[in-house]
Amino acid sequence: MMSLPKRSRLGRPSAMVSATFLAPAIALLGLFLLYPLISSFRLSTLDWNGLGTTGRFIGLQNWIHLSHDPAFFKAVRNNLILAVFSVLIQMPIALTLAVMLDKAGRGSRTLKILYFLPLLMSSVAIGVVFKNVYDPNFGPLNAALNALGLGNLAQDWLGDGRFALGATLAVICWQNIPFYMILFMAGLSSLSPELREAARLDGASPLRVFWHIELPHLQGTLRTGVLLAVIGSLRYFDLIFVMTGGGPDGASELMATYMYRTVFSSFQLGYGSTIASAMFLIVLVVASVTLTLTRRFETEI
Amino acid sequence: MKAIPNVHLESSTPFRAPRFSVSRAMVLTLGVGWLAVTTLPFLFVVVTSLKSQQDTYSGSAWSLPSVLDLSNYRAVLEGGFWVYLRNSLFVVGLSTALILLTGSMAAYVFARISSRLNRSIFSLVVAGMIVPLHVTLVPVYLMTRTAGLYDTPFALIGPYVASSLPVSIFILTEFMRQIPRELEEAAMLDGCGPFAIFWRIFVPLSGPGLATVAIYNAIALWNEFIFAYVLTSTPANRTLPLAVWDFQGQYASNIPATLAVVTLTSLPLIVAYAFGQERIIKGMMVGSVKG
User: Fold this and answer.
1) What domains are there in chain A, each with its CATH number?
2) Which residues 219-248 of B have a C-beta within 8 angstroms of A?
3) pTM, two decimal places
4) ipTM value of the model?
């Protein structure tokens, strides 16, 4: 087999080795990722209800329609609201919990294991659970509010357009805070204990130690967290789909749920693909902007 | 710092000695508070799933069941749960195996054969990490229909493997780059070809990397919803996350039964977690951060 030992490091013409080893992965990626991506843009030029083999070519009409579609802009706005509040709510809580567990030392192991539990559940299961938690008649949330004498705060959390997006945002935070907490804990574990000890000897309060030593040390990790939260927020689907379906009346509609409804409920494959393609472009732009702002793609955790 | 004895430290620093300081109390409150936030929903699910339907509608959501009612669990277990579980095991098992095989083969090339073409392909593959999968949903759905795979568990394998490959290749490439070159050079002198080097040196030495990739992808795919929902339609061909969805529709007004399904479908991962928390936490973190 090895008749040409000197042609490359691996003893064979390296191009052939490359091709053989890369072929399966490239074929799968091409067929199920790259081709569908291109195909989505092609479908966006069609007027098609999904029946028959293909639709009618209508050029850029879907894109023109999209640029005037208030439902789409509302969905984009909701995605951006989720992105901003995910960062603003999740990062501080996760950071506080991480610092707390880090201080608690060994005794925190059990807490960490329990805190992690939400990350093992599927989003569908979490969605179904919280749909029941929020249930206006039989849900434990309103029951708890009533028991505490705060009955006038009880709401139809998911059925009221004023609260639907906020209620789903709370669940998103519940699901994701443990992730960022562990990310920050990993970041903190690389901080040298001597540094903290030295600050304490100089009489620095725990708050000052956090502000001047721990937080600067976590800068890179924090950037990674923000990037993940922002990109994740633009792609949310499962939770919202299960809990509200984007309703009531579009109050919690996201790009992905709007795309899904357009294709599989309204049977507009062409327009749905336009929304999907636009979503791809938006994620691409936001990701590169966030990447440029944070200036790094990976961080040592 | 070595010069300063510990005794001195404890007596002179104001916030280290007291056992009941304000900051300590705050930390404790926070810790217990978040524990409640995390675990109360789980408690609600398990307790309610053991109630009778009548109990749910008459009593408070926080009351304990008046009689332990296991009929919900029985109904779910007799109502196709095992079929969903079997499909999940099949789809996730086969997908993960294919991810490990094709991913490590590609990573081997990216880690060791440095050509301009390979570097460009690598950047392209890594860029695949940010593609939102929903964009590929409609075309993949059409392809699946054309290929005659619609509503079979096989329909999920291709999209699952492809969507997992970018992160997996990225992690495995980083891992394989650290394998010392001396080993393969020695193997080459012994007459080993690229296939033997890959199979006998790179695969065994990438064990921890492969484990990380396997854990991360298996958990993500185990919980995957949208592709499974769109590419299959009958319970006989659906995976566990769809069990929650299907039962929810079927038992629309039966809260205990719905929550019994949630409990049962979440159980496999929680059991796995009970056996290897550290490993699972680490695997999920590395995968997500690199992704």
Assistant:
1) 72-294 (1.10.3720.10)
2) 219, 222-226, 230, 240-242, 244-245, 248
3) 0.87
4) 0.86
